[in-house]
Design goal:
single chain; mainly alpha; 2 domains; 3 helices; 82% helix; flat
């Protein structure tokens, strides 16, 4: 025989609603904090990779600077360095500074690109003026007829 279920009392229904609601709120809070923690962990992992890359780069720069320091201890290298970078000269030497060819090429390329864009804009404006003049004359002829 099937057992008959007795109806829930009002106190049981109230307990079910209260504890059920609290359980759902706690579950949602746990899920939210889990996803927040996961996102934070992912962000920190990415930041750690970036910082490792930066650390390697800075270590390479430090090694290069240490090498440069040891080179600057040599008086001949120091004299050559001063002549090349600070335009110092020996007695009777003339200093002639020649611009870096790559820098000049970059400036020239930039000027050429700017000139090309100005020419393209000018031709576009001239073309629009010609179209305007042609349309104006066509509509004048039609209005006269």
């Amino acid at each position: 025989m099937a057992k008959r279920r007795r109806p829930m009392t009002k106190a049981a229904k109230t307990r079910l609603v209260v504890f059920g609601s609290l359980s759902i709120i706690v579950i949602i809070a746990f899920v939210f904090s889990f996803f927040k923690y996961s996102a934070n962990l992912y962000q920190l992992t990415k930041e750690k990779e970036i910082l490792k890359r930066d650390l390697l780069q800075l270590q390479e720069e430090a090694d290069d600077l240490k090498i440069e320091i040891t080179k600057l201890q040599d008086p001949e290298y120091l004299a050559k360095f001063a002549r090349e970078n600070y335009l110092y000269s020996k007695e009777g030497e003339l200093i002639i500074k020649i611009n870096d060819t790559q820098e000049v090429l970059n400036k020239t390329q930039t000027q050429i690109e700017n000139n090309q864009s100005i020419i393209a804009i000018s031709l576009g404006i001239v073309g629009l003026i010609f179209i305007y003049i042609i349309l104006r004359t066509i509509f004048k002829k039609k209005s006269v007829e």
